[in-house]
Structure formats: C-alpha cells, structure tokens
Write a structure and sequence with these properties.
5-stranded antiparallel β-sheet; 3-stranded antiparallel β-sheet; alpha+beta; 6 helices
Length: 260
C-alpha cells in the first residue's frame, strides 16, 4: 500500500515541520514512527470517486445528510484521509476498517488484530476545523488531538469565564486585549486535547484542570483535580497547525512520568 490517494495531500508532522506523508514509513524503528501526527487538507472541490468509495454505506449516508455541499465534501475528505492513514498503519485496505465509539464518542478500531499490521495497542484521535483535519496515531498509550480555526467573532472572555478554571481565566484575562484571542485558542485546544486523550469528553469539566496559556510551553498541563498525580501521566504539547489555527496533542506517558 502507498499514501497516494487521488484528491488527498496528507502531511506528516516532525519537529514542528510538515512534509509529504509519502516520505514517512510506519515500519521505521524510530520512536517518531510510534507517535505520529498527520494533517489532511480539506480544500474546496468535490472529492474524487475513489475517496467516496473508501467510506462504508453508513458513512456515505452521513455525508449525504449534510445540508451544505462544502460540509459534505469536507466530511468525505476527512474520513477518507483517516482511513488512508490507519490503513497504512495497519497494512490493511482502508475501506475494510470498521470503527466503534466509546461512551463519550471517542473512536477506536474494531478488531485491529484481524489485520496484518501491528494493531495490538494502536490508539488514534482526529480533529477537524476550518480547512484541515489532524490525526494523531500512537502505539504508546492513549492520545488526544484538537485543532481550532481562529474565529474573530468569538467572545472569548465570556467562554473563558464559563468553562475555564479560575486560574486559567485569571491568567488569560490579565493579558493585553490584543493577545487574548490567541491565548484563548491555545488554552482551548490544550484542554480539548487532554479530555479527548482521557476519553471522557466534556464529562470531565474544563475547569477541573489547569493548562498553560503562553506560546511554546514545553508541557502545558499544569494541574489536575481532584487527583493531582494525573499530571504525571500526560504530555501536552502544541502543534504548529498553520496560520490562523491553534492545535495541541496530548500523549499518555508511562507510570514513572517518562514518555513511553
């Protein structure tokens, strides 16, 4: 199998840089092949028939249910891209993959060991916003990823007061107004990546943990409540998704606090 799929230009993320996924190999022995992030452009234009053919009848029905053509086409590109990435990881036909969803909506593969690849402990997560989707894949524990397109009409101060912890909110609102929007999106994506990694969705309140708001934080998870030691379990980092976007990824660490 190769990465070539008409209408998709999937990219791989490494050391804050993006490169064509055709240059990436899951079979590499390096640790970077065991924790991976990919970017799928969701550009305008009707997806090729080859992409739609990768989807299950249920997914095709979901695509057809979108009211706006642009939303339908983004769904097809995003889901087909996810299938291509996981198909490459599993050395399997992308169209043969089947998904199941946890109590809070987190997806996983059904019977990954049925394929020829190393699926014994594969984890993945996906997020999409604006004109891109991000996919994180790990054989080293749980993972969550989030990307958000910056919308200038967002009333970020109201959202921060409603959802963020007192500490997050105080640090955010203390910033100059001109810096507040970018800091809000950094905070939001970091929080979303964490709750998606944990797998509880918004059942875990965003105010029950604190994250850094400054750019370039090397480990952005600052405090977890009520179990303070949970902070040792996770590594939370930014992803340079592109101009006008904020993104973050949260990886599970080993019991002693080191990356698996």
């Amino acid at each position: 199998m190769d990465w070539t799929c008409r209408g998709l230009e999937i990219e791989h993320y490494d050391q804050n840089q993006w490169s064509p996924a055709t240059e990436f190999h899951f079979s590499d022995s390096s640790s970077s092949s065991r924790r991976c992030i990919f970017r799928i452009p969701l550009r305008a234009g009707e997806p090729a028939m080859e992409l739609q053919a990768l989807l299950t009848p249920d997914e095709q029905a979901r695509a057809a249910a979108f009211h706006f053509t642009e939303d339908r086409d983004k769904f097809i590109r995003g889901r087909a891209g996810l299938r291509v990435i996981l198909g490459e990881a599993m050395r399997a036909d992308p169209a043969a993959l089947r998904f199941t969803y946890g109590e809070h909506g987190k997806p996983s593969l059904v019977e990954p060991l049925a394929f020829g690849g190393d699926g014994s402990n594969i984890e993945f997560n996906v997020s999409h916003s604006g004109a891109m989707a991000l996919v994180a894949v790990s054989w080293c524990g749980l993972v969550g990823v989030d990307v958000e397109f910056h919308r200038e009409d967002v009333e970020f101060e109201k959202l921060a007061r409603r959802f963020f912890s007192d500490s997050d909110c105080a640090r955010l609102l203390a910033l100059p107004q001109a810096d507040g929007m970018a800091a809000f999106y950094r905070c939001w994506t970091r929080k979303e990546a964490y709750i998606k990694a944990v797998g509880t969705g918004l059942a875990l309140p965003l105010r029950s943990f604190d994250v850094a708001i400054e750019a370039g934080a090397t480990s952005a998870l600052l405090a977890t409540r009520p179990v303070a030691s949970e902070i040792l379990r996770w590594q939370l980092d930014d992803v340079a998704a592109g101009e006008g976007y904020a993104a973050a990824v949260c990886w599970e660490k080993s019991a002693n606090g080191q990356k698996i």
